[in-house]
Amino acid sequence: MSFFNQIHFVNPELLALLLLLPLAAFFYYQRYRKYYPTLRLSSLVALEGIQSWRGRWRALLPVARALSFVCLIVAIARPQIMLKEDRINADSIDIMLVMDLSSSMLAQDFTPDRLEVSKNMAVAFVNKRPYDRIGLTVFAGEAFTQCPLTSDHRIVKEFLINLQCGMLEDGTAIGMGLATAVNRTKDSPSKSKVIILLTDGVNNTGYIKPITAAEIAREFGIKVYTIGVGTIGDALTPVSRRSDGRYIFGLARVEIDEPLMQQIAEMTGGRYFRATDAESLQQVYDQIDKLEKTKVEVTTIKRYSEEFYYFAGIALFLLILEFIFRYTIFRTIP
User: What is the C-alpha separation between 56 and 20, in angstroms, rounded?
Assistant: First the structure.
């Protein structure tokens, strides 16, 4: 909020008195012409460049009086600076994001690929949850916690943005990813605990079965929302890898174990969503955002500090200064 947006006037209608300033300037000009008539000479060549410093600075006396008038009007309008205080009591939700980093997340049925779109949508979701603690777990052939539950969303978003396929052994260990997130969430004191599991494949490795991980989540009262990412049909996806680490792409059928995803969601009281493009993935996160509302109570306290005495002091100072100079240094003979 800017400084000017914080200024409040108790009597703003008195500012209309500033309209008297042009009228006062007009009467001052008429009075000046009456008391200081113009001396007409046939030629002013001999007087060119002859003007004392007193003559030049004396022209500022009316300006000082006008400024004192303006400050006086502002002072009687009683300017105040609003000091606003917000007290927020939030019943926050703990949310663990579980992201698939298997090589199939580089499939190009999303632009530029599934992973980049998923990262961007997750960052947008984090931005909508200012009062919640959010963490990040990643998995491929193995799983680990990239970021524990935290209210520092800047860190969470940094980790999300820097996610890359190839960080872990390739594969799709859905059970491992879910179990790791449950382990990080189960001891949270929060009343509401949520896991958002995003994957594009079928569980094919890991020593913990997805259903077993879901049962553990249910025991600890953790709700799991599952998201299947990928188009319906074939997609250009990594099929092998060169010796230099680059992926070779080819058309492959998109396989998502939707029955498993639905079962995990139903067991824990969550929901399963299918995202076939960026727009539908955005809608999925929007729906989850609406389903999991954080209770926030905001109490706004407004306090004001009086500032009129600054303007009154300036007005008095300018009037005294103008009076002293007018009748001493810049005094004129009638």
Answer: 26
Specify the residue for token string 């230099």: 244
Element (H, E) at 295: strand 295-306
What's the rounded Cα separation, in Å, for the pair 113 and 332?
84
pTM above 0.70, yes or no: no
Name the one residue in this structure whose structure tokens are 């995202």.
275
Sign of CA dihedral 256, 259, 262, 268: negative
pLDDT tens track for 71-110: 888 888 888 887 766 676 777 899 999 999 999 999 999 9
CB burial class (10 A; 0-12, 13-18, 19+) of residue 254? buried
- What would the two tokens of residue 77 be? 């309008």
Phi, psi of 209 (to 5 degrees): -75, 145
Q: Where residue 318 falls among pLDDT bands split at 50, 70, 90?
A: confident
